[in-house]
Design goal:
The complex is a heterodimer of chains A (about 230) and B (about 280).
Chain A (H helix, E strand, L loop, with lengths): L1 H15 L2 H18 L4 H13 L4 H16 L1 H5 L6 H27 L6 H24 L4 H16 L18 H14 L3 H26 L7
Chain B lengths: L1 E8 L9 E8 L4 E5 L6 H9 L6 E6 L2 E2 L7 H4 E4 L11 H9 L9 H7 L15 H13 L5 E5 L7 H16 L3 E6 L2 H7 L2 E6 L2 E6 L1 H8 L3 E8 L2 E8 L7 H9 L1 E7 L4 H9 L5
Parallel strand pairs in B: 3-8, 3-9, 6-7, 7-8
Antiparallel strand pairs in B: 1-2, 1-4, 4-5, 9-10, 11-12, 11-13
Classes of the chains: A mainly alpha (about 230), B alpha/beta (about 280).
Chain lengths: ~230, ~280
């Protein structure tokens, strides 16, 4: 099956380029930091924010690196003349980076929060947010030709996605931001640590799913060359 | 196998068409060469044919269907080698082949045999990053044929190769032709085209200026003469004779019988000469 092949191929590519080594180091660093933070609500919030801002968002950073490496090596051009479809190409990247996000989030949470975490909600949050951020990073990287160009372009897009997350501080009309996938994601992740109603959980999962579907369609369109070349 | 009618293509933002009404057909088991200088549209036509550039006008009928109506299965039947090696640099030669092989329904040909054929077997477990351009080009080439395609597109397949390795690649191409495979080759190397192609098309500014077999072109555009270099009283002499009634030419017979012959050459035109004559442009 081609998708399995694409996943194997991506895993090997990411391993050989040191993505997993880098992320293992970062995960260990987070665990050390988390152990320095005193227990209670502060630790719950810190855990949620670390898990959201890094493992869940790693797809945004890594996909750019992966796409730029594939572009520089010309591999992306060659894949276009194999039977691998754009859907399979993107899905393999979502699966591998999503898997890495989940592994990192589980390891950080397990080693710092032994109890009191709603694992089902945490896994749903990390998986769905990882899909969104990976596709978001994919779109940012799509038009770039060099790594430097990607890093420059990444900054405004990163701010655009981080700033609305301050809606968790609950200011007037901050509820409007709940329909954004990043805000829904951060609230869901915090909810996994400190508790959340099933209605809110369902609402946030629907919000992220709708965004994921829409951004997936856009990513496919962009990957196919934005339609017609004429 | 491949019929192209009135093919036109324009890049987004370009003033005019890059391909301007191209017609040709390629038969099963044929090696068809597209020749032209840089910027003539050779790579564009290859990209349009393999589906990397969409939105063409005209018709491309391949495997009995219009190109734009064929899905991803098209790539199960074709092999493509670009003129630059696009490989996973951090992976080994064999891993590069294995990863791409995952994407095809058909199992690949024996990879070690292929690697051996192009002299890369001793390097199969080495990371491609350290390969020379020639090694990368050879790996690039066998990757395009490992799934046993029936139609192949090669862009400058011997670029960056030394004569020994270029011959290995040419021999593989000729062997594939003898197996009934069809090959579309784009190059600006006239010698390669002469050695491999059954027919060639000269592409200039997006149009086909001439299309025929190299042999027919050389006959048509060559001088029908023979040039003889010889030694006469210790000095070198040169004479040129018309081929018509050459056997009855007394001066020719005299030289052949009484002089020490250094060389005799018929004055065929090279493909490069013909290209310059027909298009008024040089191949760069």
């Amino acid at each position: 099956m081609r998708l399995i092949g694409a996943i194997k191929s991506d895993l090997r590519f990411q391993y050989k380029h040191g993505f997993y080594a880098v992320y293992t180091f970062i995960t260990v660093l987070y665990i050390i930091i988390m152990h320095k933070i005193p227990g209670g609500l502060i630790k719950d919030y810190a855990g949620a924010l670390i898990v959201f801002s890094d493992p869940a968002m790693l797809g945004f950073f890594f996909i750019g690196g992966i796409i730029m490496l594939e572009k520089q090596q010309g591999v992306i051009d060659y894949l276009a003349v194999t039977p691998l479809s754009p859907e399979e190409y993107i899905t393999a990247k979502l699966a591998t980076l999503g898997f890495l996000s989940i592994c990192a989030a589980v390891v950080i949470t397990l080693t710092t929060h032994a109890a009191g975490v709603n694992w089902l909600i945490l896994l749903l949050a990390i998986a769905s947010v990882s899909v969104f951020f990976t596709l978001y990073g994919f779109l940012v990287a799509a038009g770039c030709r060099t790594i430097n160009q990607y890093f420059l372009r990444m900054i405004p897009f990163l701010l655009l996605i981080i700033l609305p997350c301050f809606a968790v501080l609950e200011f007037p009309y901050s509820w409007v931001f709940n329909v954004l996938p990043n805000v829904a994601g951060v609230k869901l992740t915090i909810g996994a640590f400190i508790g959340i109603s099933w209605q809110e959980t369902l609402f946030y999962i629907i919000v992220i799913s709708v965004w994921n579907w829409a951004i997936y369609r856009v990513a496919l369109w962009v990957h196919r060359g934005g339609g017609d070349h004429r | 196998m491949l019929n192209v009618k009135n093919l036109e293509f324009k890049y987004r933002g370009a003033k005019g068409n890059t391909l301007k009404g191209i017609d040709f057909n390629i038969h099963r088991g044929e090696i068809f060469g597209f020749l032209g200088p840089s910027g003539s549209g050779k790579t564009t036509i290859q990209k349009v044919l393999i589906g990397l550039l969409k939105g063409y006008n005209g018709s491309i009928n391949v495997f009995g269907k219009e190109r734009k109506n064929i899905g991803r299965d098209f790539y199960e039947k074709i092999g493509v080698a670009f003129d630059f090696p696009n490989l996973y640099l951090k992976l080994t030669a064999k891993e590069n082949l294995q990863l791409i092989a995952y994407y095809y329904k058909k199992p690949p040909q024996e990879l070690d045999c292929l690697l051996d054929r192009v002299g890369l077997l001793p390097d199969k477990n080495k990371v491609v990053e350290g390969f020379s351009k020639g090694m990368k080009m050879r790996l690039n080439f066998i990757r395009s044929i490992m799934h046993n395609p029936t139609l192949m597109f090669f862009d400058e397949p011997t670029s960056g190769l030394d004569p020994v390795n270029a011959k290995i690649i040419k021999d593989i191409i000729l062997q594939m032709k003898s197996e009934g495979k069809t090959i579309f080759l784009t190059t600006h190397n006239m010698t390669i085209a002469e050695q491999l192609c059954d027919r060639v098309a000269f592409l200039v500014e997006g149009q086909i200026a001439l299309c025929d077999s190299p042999y027919a072109l050389k006959l048509k555009y060559g001088r029908k003469t023979v040039k003889v270099d010889y030694l006469e009283h210790g000095k070198k002499g040169t004479s040129e004779f018309g081929l018509d009634l050459l056997g009855g030419n007394q001066r020719f017979q005299e030289i052949i019988l009484d002089r020490e012959i250094i060389s005799i050459h018929s004055q065929d035109a090279s493909l490069e000469d013909i290209f310059i004559k027909v298009t008024g442009r040089e191949l760069l």
